[in-house]
Amino acid sequence: MAKTLYDKLWDSHVVHVEPDGTALLYIDRHLVHEVTSAQAYEGLRAAGRKPWRVDSVVATADHNTPTTNWEEGIAGVRDPFARLQIETLDANIGEFGAKVYFPYLDKRQGIVHVIGPEQGATLPGMTVVCGDSHTSTHGAFACLAHGVGTSEVEHVLATQCLVTRKMKNMRVNVEGPLARGVTPKDVVLAIIGRIGTAGGTGYAVEFAGSAIRAMSMEGRMTVCNMAIEAGARAGMVAVDDSTLEYLNGRPFAPKGAEWERAAAYWRGLRSDLDAKFDREVTLDAREIKPHVTWGTSPEMVVPVDAAVPDPDREKDGLRREGMERALQYMGLKPRTPITDIRIDKVFIGSCTNSRIEDLRAAAAVVKGRRIASNVRLAMVVPGSGLVKQQAEREGLDRVFREAGFEWREPGCSMCLGMNPDRLEAGERCASTSNRNFEGRQGVGGRTHLVSPAMAAAAAIAGHFVDIRRWS
Amino acid sequence: MDKFTVLTGLVVPLDRANVDTDQIIPKEYLSSIKRTGFAQGLFGAWRRDPEFVLNQPRYKGATILLARRNFGCGSSREHAPWALMDYGFRCVIAPSFGDIFFTNSFKNGFLPVVLSEAEVERLFHECAAFPGFQLRIDLERQSVSSVDGSLAMRFDIDPFRKHCLLNGLDEIGLTLSHADKIRAFEAQRKAQYPWYF
Ligand code: SF4
């Protein structure tokens, strides 16, 4: 029978199935970070259990690590709770082990979803889990990558398996060329705008079509990263030449004859031509414009040349109330043109958009210019130490600094504000991250999700601008 | 894990759709390395508003949360069900849930119940109309009913999850009862695809 990519990944990892369909799925790669692992290791310890396969674990500290004061060492972590979590991870990895650990201050440390692929620790055909919902990012490599909760982190550590059920299959086709200035971030925001934040719930989503195939691996990661914002626990893209080119030579990728064997297998990781999907959605890439969110959910998004929507025109009562609440929280009036919205801060970073191509795109926009006087803080936070190094080799740090941006150490930073990088109440931010939930970037903070180029342009102009008209 | 069999309790209505886990437990409260002590952070930002439902005396002591569609979307933080339980909730009823939150709940003996939009709407009306409105959740019979029996609804649940909840089973222990199968699978995978090891 014809299979989808997801069917193939699923079938090749099922260890056991209960009569009701509950399955044990074997896990190849387990990414661990400081915020969701402490209780899992504690659970292991309390039950006297050991990790099943230490070699599956790749660990780093990223969520609450500061992006300044690195020269002070661990003392630079001013928040005692953050420090305790970082030190607890150090101790847990010390006690239980890992294939590789990139601790705080290591030059290869970074956001867990950036370093997995960067190190070749994420490979096609794998099952990947992490106690973080944006694990869907790794699906760009034709992996079955799920975010899991802490009990599941403990379960996978102890048994190498996840107790789960098969999801349904959805394919999102994006066909045609993207217009100039339109990026993978805009594509995924457009997809979420179309299907809604719960549109993918219960599905594994494959992103396909010529626009996806034309994207770099970094672009595909941006799209898969936000699958969870459409409700889908896993997003994925089939293997092609771009996948193999990206991985070849990475530290944990196979080498020599083994690489050849692996690559031959990986090329089969695509949906069969006549595979059936439970749901298919198709978008015309030519029609996608740069997108900006206006509300407190990623589905509250419009093209940059549109205006803030009017709740009075929404027929569904529950949705209307949601819109009204969002507008109030965001301090916006209906029908305000998006390009009239002025901003206070700019954040370029997060596992959605902190890789080298993102930084290049943003640098190209700001080069030779200065941030607007109403912008209090504009910061660039590379996704990993290696991204940072590469950017510095290319002189991008200088471009940003000269434009008035702060150039920081890697980490999650203001994506969720668990470290000192936060929005103050009422501050409005152009952010390349993935969540605009209330308080996500700081209590009372107002987040607008955009692409790196759009964030950079907003920093220079002081308000949102249509990057397609930027010269 | 705690068992879940029958629960009779006061219902508190949270009339908002898409309540994400960042709202259920804001990140300010995620710095702990323990599984308990999150009650204070539950809906931390919203609770600053004296009008917020959880601050209303009539809902004091509630154990059942009534919510709208897509409850628990967003972040994978298991602190969300931990906080709900810490506060005293044992069950949440909604028309749909975020996938990860839904799974996390079962791992902690916290029951998420899916009812239709119409049924949930009905319960919101009952809550508003009758102060002290209680529901009885019977997991074995998969039923939600009013205490006087005037209202009865059925819900679906995976048999495996139901079994684990009813008996308060340790899932890791259950999975390890298949250790031989896992080992055999692993050995075969390693032989066939050595680059994953
Ligand atoms: S960058 Fe943001 S979304 Fe990504 S892992 Fe870190 S906190 Fe989560």
Would you kindly provide a written description of the structure presented here, covering whatever features stand out?
- The complex is a heterodimer of chains A (471) and B (197).
- By secondary structure, chain A is an alpha/beta fold.
- In chain A, 32% of the residues lie in helices and 17% in strands.
- Chain A contains 15 helices and 19 strands.
- Chain A has helices at 5-11, 34-47, 80-96, 112-118, 150-159, 184-195, 210-213, 217-225, 241-247, 256-266, 317-330, 356-366, 385-393, 396-403, 452-461; strands spanning 14-17, 23-26, 29-32, 57-60, 100-102, 127-130, 144-147, 161-164, 168-175, 203-208, 234-236, 279-284, 291-293, 301-303, 345-348, 377-380, 406-407, 428-431, 446-449.
- Chain A has a five-stranded parallel sheet with strand order 5-4-3-6-7.
- In chain A, helix 2 packs across helix 5 (150-159) and helix 6 runs parallel beside helix 8.
- With 197 residues, chain B is an alpha/beta fold.
- Chain B has one domain (6-169): Aconitase, domain 4 (Alpha-Beta Barrel), CATH 3.20.19.
- Chain B has seven helices and seven strands.
- In chain B, strands 4-3-2-1-5-6-7 form a seven-stranded mixed sheet.
- In chain B, a hairpin with a 4-residue loop joins strand 5 (134-138) and strand 6 (143-146).
- The model of chain B has no long low-confidence stretch (mean pLDDT 95).
- Classes of the chains: A alpha/beta (471), B alpha/beta (197).
- Chains A and B meet through helix 2, helix 3, helix 5, strand 8 and helix 10 of A and helix 3, helix 5, helix 6 and helix 7 of B.
Keywords:
heterodimer; A: 471 residues; five-stranded parallel β-sheet; 15 helices; 19 strands; B: 197 residues; alpha/beta; 7 strands; 16% strand; binds iron/sulfur cluster
